Amino acid sequence: MVKNFPFKVVSTFAGCGGSSLGYKLAGGKVLLAVEWDDNAAETYRLNHSGTDVYHGDIAELSIDEVLRRTGLTPGELDIFDGSPPCQGFSTSGKREMHDSRNQLFREYVRLLRGLQPKVFVMENVSGMVKGKMKLLFAEIMRELKGSGYKVSARLMNAKYFNVPQSRDRMIFIGVREDLGISPSHPKPQSRPITFRQACYDLRGNNPDDRMLGDMLLQVARLQPDNWNTDDAIYRKIKGNLASAMSTQWIGWDRVCGTLTKSEISTSGLVHPDRERYVSLAEAKRISSFPDDFQFIDRKSGIVRMGNCVPPNLMKAIATHIRDHILI
């Protein structure tokens, strides 16, 4: 049963507003979004006109400023949301423990301790629980629990939450200790949705589509019907394996793999027809964004969606929190 009040949210590292859209779909009201990237902030404003946007460095945002902008006092906020940049944890990068981007979660914790919301949600990549990054994961858990919260962290794959994309993310949910409620995560809600089911009516090329170059066209003619690139074929045609791992082959009747923000050189998600990369319209569908969601252009749209929490995944998380924790 939907609660008879819009729960209140503050979203940090808000990006283009994928999480914000999910909260809104679950009946929430996002009072403030925090984002420093110019393109992301502009995109956010295009699609979330009713939300106040702090466009600047989170390290310069004070607790008092958040309270002034939202009209709240400490302890009143329902959900404090954030996805601190995760490149330092990502399995697709160098995974440096001392990468400065790994430390931005401290700004999240600083605001968490000052605002004392009833619940927090923090998202990050699956790579933070692999190898040497487990040490940082343990540190993050200590900081979150030390802020006065019961905390649960779980890997969730968006493909089981009405998102036509296989996308593993670590979702932290914390509940303020005085509420006496244990944190929990939603159970899977859907079967994986194939690319055909998601994009059956988007056939045809568009002027802004990114077509495959000659080298990948040669690979495409020989590439078997697998998601990952055949290294032997790739090496034979290109001479090396640079970008092979980042070139992924979509199948009409398979769930799409993870849309990443990096679409450079010869890397990206290749459309099943093997003539071009996935279009902006298709990227919206596989990321669970509505067709009318506005991006500045195709290139930045891919970056924005590659960085965000898919709206339908956050809708499932927010609905679960609304019905089982904010009671």
Give me some keywords for this one:
seven-stranded mixed sheet; two-stranded parallel sheet; single chain; elongated; Rossmann fold; 2 domains; alpha/beta
Record the strand order, biggest sheet.
3-2-1-4-5-7-6
**H/E series:** EHEHEHEHEHEEHHHEEHHH
Q: Give the end-to-end Cα distance, rounded to a whole number of Å.
A: 11 Å
Considering DSSP H and I runs of 4 or more, what fraction of the residues is helical? Answer: 25-40%
CATH superfamily name of the largest domain?
Answer: Vaccinia Virus protein VP39
CATH topology of the largest domain: Rossmann fold
What can you tell me about this protein's structure?
With 327 residues, this protein is of the alpha/beta class. It folds into two domains: 8-192 and 310-324, Vaccinia Virus protein VP39 (Rossmann fold), CATH 3.40.50; 195-305, DNA Methylase, Chain A, domain 2 (Alpha-Beta Complex). 31% of the residues lie in helices and 16% in strands. It contains eleven helices and nine strands. It has helices at 18-25, 38-47, 63-70, 105-115, 134-145, 195-199, 214-222, 231-238, 280-286, 298-307, 311-324; strands at residues 8-12, 29-35, 52-55, 79-82, 119-125, 149-157, 168-176, 247-249, 268-270. The strands form two sheets. The chain has a seven-stranded mixed sheet, sandwiched between helices. Helix 4 links the parallel strand 4 (79-82) and strand 5 (119-125). Helix 1 packs across helix 11 (311-324).
Brief rundown of the structure:
The chain is an alpha/beta fold. The chain is built from eleven helices and nine strands. Strand 1, helix 1 and strand 2 form a beta-alpha-beta unit.
